[in-house]
Design a protein that fits this description.
The protein is of the alpha/beta class and 266 residues long. The chain has one domain (7-17, 52-261): Nucleotidyltransferase, domain 5 (2-Layer Sandwich), CATH 3.30.420. It is built from 11 helices and 5 strands. A 5-stranded mixed sheet has the order 3-2-1-4-5, sandwiched between helices. Helix 1 (18-25) crosses helix 2 (32-47), helix 7 crosses helix 9 (199-224) and helix 9 packs antiparallel against helix 10. It is globular. The two termini are 25 Å apart. 32% of the residues are buried.
């Protein structure tokens, strides 16, 4: 069956929440560089790595891939210098207005928990997102919160049959399917890029992640029988047309990598 309901694939990029770290760990008086180093050292000593817990991440980019009606587009929310509160609000406002099917890669494990915490901090109201039947009885069986429903489809979680030992990285699955995978950056480089003022590069990287995820989602829908082979090819071609028509350098790079990788896929 063709795609009828809005599909919104999303991904976020984050940096450590230095102000939050100062409050929680008592790093009062430390400048940003010193606070970042102190947070990293403390986390490394506690966990053996310096990746901060979800509640100590600050959102610097949210990118989306929307497929609705005749529309297909990939973009990043807000202006490059938009404050975090605006980015998070824009994301949840879109969910509240359109109630799309949300699609992510590890969104249940990282992206959505981070967005929940930041929405709390910024005092946002998102009743339709959280509804499990209080406002709309149908939401009891079709909501964003329940792990085993598809209103939010975390592809990494679903494909692994909800078994953490079977999780696969987005980059590796994209490459296995002949898609470009990650180009030029990964999540570990975002904080450094942000400090260097390279928010445009961060947003471009985030956008390529959501398109990789969307292409995997199309293959998933083909596997589920919700897209026929012909419909799947039409949707893939729609994405390729978007890339061909875009003047942005990262999309030209993405298309070239896609063409190069396609012949190596199983």
């Amino acid at each position: 069956m063709p795609i009828r309901e809005p599909i919104l694939v999303f991904d976020i990029e984050t940096i450590p929440d230095l102000e939050g770290g100062r409050r929680i760990h008592g790093f009062t008086g430390l400048d940003d560089e010193a606070a970042a180093q102190a947070m990293s050292a403390q986390r490394l000593a506690e966990k053996g790595h310096d990746f901060q817990p979800q509640h100590l991440h600050r959102v610097v980019a949210i990118s989306c891939c929307l497929r609705a009606g005749d529309d297909f587009r990939v973009w990043s929310l807000g202006e490059p210098d938009a404050p975090e509160a605006e980015l998070v609000k824009r994301f949840f406002d879109g969910v509240e207005k359109y109630r799309p099917t949300l699609v992510s890669w590890n969104g249940s494990g990282f992206d959505l928990p981070v967005l929940h915490y930041r929405a709390l901090i910024h005092r946002l109201s998102t009743p339709r997102y959280w509804d499990t039947g209080h406002f709309d009885r149908e939401s009891k069986w079709d909501n964003y919160i329940s792990r085993y429903q598809f209103r939010h489809t975390d592809l990494m979680d679903v494909l692994a049959l909800y078994q953490a030992r079977a999780y696969a990285p987005l980059n590796e699955m994209a490459l296995l399917l002949g898609f470009p995978g990650k180009l030029g950056m990964d999540g570990s480089k975002v904080a450094e890029a942000f400090r260097a003022g390279k928010i445009g590069e961060i947003r471009a990287y985030c956008e390529t992640d959501v398109l990789n995820t969307y292409l995997i989602y199309l293959r998933f829908q083909l596997m589920r029988g919700l897209l026929s082979a012909a419909e799947h090819e039409q949707e893939v071609e729609r994405a390729r047309e978007f890339l061909a028509q875009s003047p942005a350098p990262h999309w030209a790079e993405f298309l070239a990598a896609w063409d190069s990788n396609a012949g190596t896929a199983s």
